[in-house]
Design brief:
CATH class of the largest domain in chain A: Mainly Alpha
Largest interface: A-B, 87 and 83 residues
Low-confidence stretches of chain A: 1-10, 457-461
CATH architecture of the largest domain in chain B: Orthogonal Bundle
Order of helices and strands of chain B: HHHHHHHHHHHHHH
CATH superfamily of the largest domain in chain B: MetI-like
Largest sheet of chain A: 2 strands, antiparallel
Largest sheet of chain B: none
Strand content of chain A: under 5%
Number of domains of chain B: 2
CATH superfamily of the largest domain in chain A: MetI-like
Distance between the termini of chain A: 47 Å
CATH topology of the largest domain in chain B: MetI-like fold
Radius of gyration of chain A: 31 Å
Mean pLDDT of chain B: 84
CATH architecture of the largest domain in chain A: Orthogonal Bundle
Mean pLDDT of chain A: 83
Number of helices of chain B: 14
CATH class of the largest domain in chain B: Mainly Alpha
Distance between the termini of chain B: 37 Å
Radius of gyration of chain B: 27 Å
CATH topology of the largest domain in chain A: MetI-like fold
Number of strands of chain A: 2
Strand content of chain B: under 5%
Structural class of chain B: mainly alpha
Number of domains of chain A: 2
Oligomer: heterodimer
Amino acid sequence: MPKGKAGKKKNKEFYNPYSVTNAVKKGDIFTRLSMLIMGLGNFARGQIAKGLAFLILEAAYIFFMIKTGASCIADLIRLGGAEQQKYWNEAKQVYEYTQGDNSLLMLLFGVATLFITIIFILLWRASLKSAYKAQCMKENGKKPDTFVQDIKSLFDKNLHKTLLALPVTGVVVFTILPLVFMISMAFTNYSKLDSHLTIFNWVGLENFGKIFSFNSSIGKSFWSALGWTLIWAVFATFSNYILGMILAIVINRKNTRGKAFWRTIFMLSAAIPQFVSLLLMRTMFNREGIINTLLQRYFNLSEPMPFWDNAMLARIVIIVVNIWIGIPFTMLQVTGVLQNIPEDLYEAAKVDGAGPVKTFFKITLPYMLFVTGPYLITSFTGNINNFNVIYLLSGGGPVTDLSSTSGKTDLLVTWLYKLSVDQQYYNIAAVIGIMTFVVMAVVSLITYHRTGSYKNEEGFQ
Amino acid sequence: MKKMSKSARIGKKTSNVFVHILLGVLAFIWILPILFIIMVSFKSDPGLQVRTLLPDVILQKVKLSHPDMFANVTRGFIPTLDNYKKLFTDTTNVFNFPQMFLNTLIISIFTCIISAFFVLSVSYVMSRMRFKMRKPFMNVALILGMFPGFMSMIAVYYILKSIGLTEGAMIRVALVMVYSGGSGLSFYIAKGFFDTIPKSIDEAAYIDGATRWQVFTRITIPLSKPIIVYTVLQSFMAPWLDFIFAKVICRANKDYFTVSVGLWNMLEKEYIYSWFNCFAAGAVCISIPIIILFMVMQKFYREGVAGAVKG
């Protein structure tokens, strides 16, 4: 078994002689029979409670599969199903409805059954390993662990199993299962198009084709949303980073008085719940909002500025508001690092006659990029997924092309939200989600690589 | 430094003055929206229009001495507490603010207990225990973080619906589960903190016969006050700040709205005219505790990042 060997090499640190392969190869009759009847090996060596637990779980799984699981898997493969139909009931002399199928529930239960099956397979492996372990211990003249010893080890040597059990269950149920469910939607025709909202089928890669073509309306929306997402992420990240750093530097200067006071003021705006400040900003930039009132009063504008109705203006306003929102956060993050820059670097620069601008670009910025590189990457990916700012400010609008499903300031994520919650194009939304993931993964991979090489070139330590 | 020429000193002084003026202007810009929302919360006439923020007393005096100024404004700003009164007493209407407040409080208390337990368990395990699935788990956490968080929202909704948690009072349970369910993935900061606690302390305890569970509960946890406070506060604040999940799961069930969904609804087209001032009042009421918590959290975050035991 080449796979087993490779695995062994990789995990040498955690090499476990009680593996499934060994159990099959070297196990005695009880151990091998445990493959069929889980827990048998444990019974044979006197681990009654453990064996019973394995046996009950196996029985429960088989019962579940016979009762509902098998049909769920069949439904998952088939999808589709019968629509609700009206038929004439002779006996009662009324029209009645047959119960229609719901492909969405089929998909959900199917995926859930797959998860249960995977968990069962892991359990099966565990039972085999434990049977083999018990066999080995008996052969070596040792007493197999008693039930009490097993429980005790869960609070000592195996504490990680105890502590991880609940959190991992939470992650599986609330993150991984829904994610798999959504990803599988990308390969169906689940959308309001041709009314496939209750009954839908697998369609393979058709949706991906729609997204990538330049001709369809969805394809056009996708490329323009992707472009704006990247532009937005670049501007939002770097404007906040550079300006926030300059602010932190100005506050940190030797001769600035009341450092704590200035910091508190800027922190105050970071501390307000974001949805409050963003909603407030939205109303301030409204047609009747205070900004337009002031502009009309003091600059004699005849018409209010259409901040949210003009694509270009909306984009600029969003970036400017984001600067207001983001700078305090950068300042908080950066202040500590700035104080750690070795003083002698600045002294040396001064001796060489470098001005403040040159010092900033030659010393401060490279040092900060070196130390806060990971922060910069997380904030870049965070901005690609920055739902709040866009949704609460412009709502993705203005929608200039009425046939399109996205507005001019829609990021991929806000478009995804609209597609699924408002417009019911679930399959397209799922594809967008996958594409967002791809963009994020590519960006992270490239930038992590870059920071790595950067580190090798000039370590600041 | 003493030998600095006169012109250089003057130059330094002017640049110093300039910096302080700049900071003052910036601080004003940053504080302005906050002042604005506080003013609006005391405003008496409904709607978005804000004619003037000058107090009425001052405005009338100015008008007496300079009749041509503020020609188109007749009345100044007269502060009133009516918006707050309406917010807290008008519970029969569309928005029942005390109820929303209570909902959010209940949800956030349970959320912070559960998520703090999850986060601390996972971080301790990742920091101190070595087992086969450790690296894979950390990589999976990294990859899962790259999917947009609410891509799974629709799916989560259907999962909760299929186990009957999307109707009536169960909505609160559903929201607690949504906020705390996946929290095991955000272990990085707490793990970094646990890494700074010297392993020698643990080893000394093992020699004395302590189990790992005892080390975790009697040694690590008591040493980790800053990071525990930080984790608890952060998860406590999540339900007050989040609005996407709450909106999808509450839908139109007004009785179970959280504060953020309620406030967001106040700015919908049909309510904005009569509820804008109340929105401001509500925002002020929510922001003050949140600001205090945020400041406390920042303090503990700094302590946490600085490390546990010195030396």
